[in-house]
Amino acid sequence: MAGIEGSPGSSMHGVTGREPVHAFSVASPIVPTDTTAKFDLPVDSEHKAKKFKLFSFANPHMRTFHLSWISFFTCFVSTFAAAPLVPIIRDNLNLTKSDIGNAGVASVSGSIFSRLVMGAVCDLLGPRYGCAFLVMLSAPTVFCMSLVSSAGGYVAVRFMIGFSLATFVSCQYWMSTMFNSKIIGTVNGTAAGWGNMGGGATQLIMPVLYDIIKKTGSTPFTAWRIAFFIPGWLHIIMGILVMTLGQDLPDGNRSALQKKGNVAKDQFGKVLWYAVTNYRTWIFALLYGYSMGVELSTDNVIAEYFYDRFDLKLHLAGIIAATFGMANLLARPFGGFASDYSARYFGMRGRLWTLWILQTLGGVFCLLLGRADSLPLAVAFMIIFSIGAQAACGATFGVIPFVSRRSLGIISGLAGAGGNFGSGLTQLLFFSTSKYTTEEGLEYMGIMIICCTLPVMLVHFPQWGSMFLPPNNKASEEHYYTSEYTEEEVQKGMHHNSLKFAENSRSERGNRIASAPTPPSATPNYV
Amino acid sequence: MATNACLVVSLWISCLLATSHATTFSSLQRTIILTASPQAGQVLKAGEDNITLTWSLNTTFPSGTDSYKDVTVELCYAPISQKDRGWRKTVDELAKDKTCQHNIVKKPYTSSNTTFTWTVRKDVPGATYFVRAYALDSAGREVAFGQTTDAHKTANLFEVEAIIGRHVSLDIASACFSAFSILSLLGFFFMDKRKGKPSK
C-alpha cells in the first residue's frame, strides 16, 4: 500500500510492551514531553497533559477536568430532580400516569437535539463558553419549576431543563483540548461516569431538601417548589466558576482555537456519509439506547416505584433510588476496564463478548427487579442491574473508537443520541400508561434489553472477526480504515492518521500478536 | 417420606391460615351509619372549608359490636380520581388498599351519635372524594365500616379544591435569580471580550 512510512511496526519504536494497559498516563518515548513548559503535569508538544492526576485541582488541566464533570453532574441533578419528588408533585398538579410518563420522555428528548447544537457551539465559541452558556441559560428553566401549576407546564419545564444534558458534549470536547489523545479515553470515561452519578445524587438530595424545608413550616405543596431553587443556584455557581476559573486551552484563552481549525480539516458531508453507511453505527446506537437509555429511564421511575410498591417514606425511597445512579462512580469505569482487559487476551472478540455479557446481565436483573416481591431482593437486583447497565455503557465506548477513525465524532454522537432515544422510547412504551404497572414495565424493559442486545452478535470486523465468526485472514486493519477514503483522497494522502491508527489497533487481534498495550487514541474533539 | 409429606402439608395449611388472616374489605359489614355535611358535587377549599361528620351504629344489625374499640374516619378517593393513577388503587386486601389515604380523625367507639368537624388540610390534593369510617378492634384491625356513598361509590361525592402551593414571593425570587443568571453570563462574556481584544 502506497504511503506507509517505513515497514509495519516501525511506528511502535520505543514501545517495550510493558506499559500499563489502562492509560492514566502515557510514557515519554511514545509521546514526547515538552520540557520547556511549566505545568503541574507533564505535557506534550501541544501542552496537553500526559498524566491524569485525579485529586489535583492544578490549573489548567485538572481544574478543567473538575469544572467540567461537576457542571455535567449539576445538569444531571436538575434534569432528574423531579423524579424523587413525583409522589408529592403528582398530588399537587393532579397528574395522571400518562402525564408523569410524558414528562419523563420529555426530560430525555430535549438533549437529543441540544447535543448536536452544542457541537457546533463548541466549534464556534469554544467549550468554556459552551458549557457556561448552557449551564447559566438553563438556570431560569430550573427556577420555572416553582411556577408550574398544571400537567402541561410540568411536561414543558422538564423538557426545557433536559436541554442542559448537552453539557456532556462540552465536557468531552473541553477535555480533549486539555488531555493527550492517548489518555483521553480514560479521562472522558471517568468524567462521563461521574457526571451520570448526578442522576443518583439527586434522588438523595431532593427528598432531604424537601424534608428540611417542610420542617421550617412550609406546606408540602410549597416545599417541593422551594427545593428546586437549590439546583438552580448550583447552575449559577457552576456557570460563574467556569467563566472565572476555566480557560479554553492549556496556554490561555481562546482565539487560538480558531487557528487550529481542527474540525474544518475534513468534509462534514463525507464524514457523515461514512458514519451513516457503517451498519455498526446503528447497532451501537441501538445498544447504547439499552444501556444508557435504560439507566436514564430507571432514574426517572425508580424512586416512585419503591415509594409506591413497598410503602417506603419519601427519603428512604430516595436513598435506595440513589444507589442506582451512584453506582456510576465505579461501574462505568469498570466496564471500560473490563473491555480493555478482555481485549488483551481475546482482542476485539473479547470486547464484544464483554459488552454482550454485561448488558444482558443488566437486562436479566432488570427483569428480576420487576418480579421481586420483597424489599431486600428488589434492592439487591436493582444494584446488580445498575452495575450491568452502567458497565455496559463503559464497554460500549471501549468498542466505538474502533468502528471508524474518520467519523468517530459523529458515530459517538449518534450513539449518544441513541441512548436518549432509547430512554424516551422505553418510557413511552412501558411507563406512560396504566396498561402496565411499574413492576410490569420493569419486567418488559428487562426483556427488551436482552433482545436489543442480541444485535451485537452481528458486529463483524473483517480483520478481527465477530462474536462467533473468525476473522478473514486476508483482511487487515489498514484496509478497513482506509476504505473510508475515496481513491482521490488516498492519493492526496488524507488517510495518514487512519493508517497510524490502524497500526496501533493491531492489538485488537488479542494474544495472537505480541501487541503494543497502549490503547490507541480514543474519543475525538467533539462527541 | 411420610414425615416429609406431613411437614409440607402443615406448612401449606399454616400459609393458608396466614393469608386468611389478612382482612379484606368485602368481609366487612356496613354496620355504621356515616353522614357528612358536603352536598353531592359541592366543592370545598383546602385549608378553609369544614366537613362535619356524624356517625352512629345502625341498630338494625344484631350485636357483635362488643369487639369495636375505636372508630377511624378517612377521606377516600372516588373512582374518577383513581383513574390512570395506580397509586390510588382499590384492592380488596385492606393492608394493600390505597383508596383512603387521608386520615380525618380516630376516636374511641361509642354506640351513640358522635359528631366531628374537620377543616380540610392544606396537603389534601384536588380530587373527588367520599368519607369512610372503619370500626377497629383492640388489635387495630378493621371489623366493620360505614361510608357516605353507595356500594358503587357513585353517589354523594364531593370535590376538594387544593391549594396550588405557589406564592408571589416564590415567583419574584424565581424571576430575580433567572435575571441574575442571564445578566451575569452576559456580563462575564462582554468583560472577556473587552479583555481579549487588545492582546489578540
TrEMBL record, chain A:
**One cellular component (GO) term of this entry:** membrane
Q: Which domain of life is it from?
A: Eukaryota
User: Which ranges are annotated Pro residues under compositional bias?
Assistant: 517-527
An example GO BP is: nitrate assimilation
Q: Which InterPro entries match?
A: MFS, MFS_dom, MFS_trans_sf, NO3_transporter
Q: Which residues form a coiled coil?
A: none
Q: Does the keyword Membrane apply?
A: yes
Compartmental location: Membrane
The keyword S-adenosyl-L-methionine is assigned to this record: no
User: Which residues are in the Major facilitator superfamily (MFS) profile domain?
Assistant: 64-464
Q: Which SUPFAM superfamilies match?
A: MFS general substrate transporter
What keywords are assigned to this protein?
Membrane, Nitrate assimilation, Transmembrane, Transmembrane helix
Q: What's the protein's topology in the membrane? A: Multi-pass membrane protein
Residues that span the membrane, as ranges? 67-88, 127-148, 155-175, 226-250, 271-292, 312-331, 352-372, 378-403, 410-430, 442-461
Q: Where is this region: Disordered?
A: 501-527
**Molecular function terms from GO:** nitrate transmembrane transporter activity
- Family the UniProt entry places it in: Belongs to the major facilitator superfamily. Nitrate/nitrite porter (TC 2.A.1.8) family. Belongs to the major facilitator superfamily. Phosphate:H(+) symporter (TC 2.A.1.9) family.
**Entry protein name:** Major facilitator superfamily (MFS) profile domain-containing protein
Automatic annotation (TrEMBL), chain B:
**Keyword Acyltransferase in annotation:** no
Q: Name one GO cellular component term.
A: plasma membrane
- A single BP term in Gene Ontology: response to nitrate
Signal sequence bounds: 1-22
Q: Which residues form a coiled coil?
A: none
Keywords in alphabetical order: Cell membrane, Membrane, Nitrate assimilation, Signal, Transmembrane, Transmembrane helix
- Tagged with keyword Cell membrane: yes
Residue intervals passing through the bilayer: 172-191
Q: Tell me, what's a Pfam family for it?
A: NAR2
| One function term, GO molecular function aspect | nitrate transmembrane transporter activity
PANTHER family recorded for this chain? HIGH-AFFINITY NITRATE TRANSPORTER 3.1, HIGH-AFFINITY NITRATE TRANSPORTER 3.2
What task does this protein carry out?
Involved in nitrate transport.
Please give the family membership noted in the entry: Belongs to the NAR2 family.
Q: What is this protein called?
A: High-affinity nitrate transporter
Q: Which organism is it from?
A: Salvia splendens (Scarlet sage)
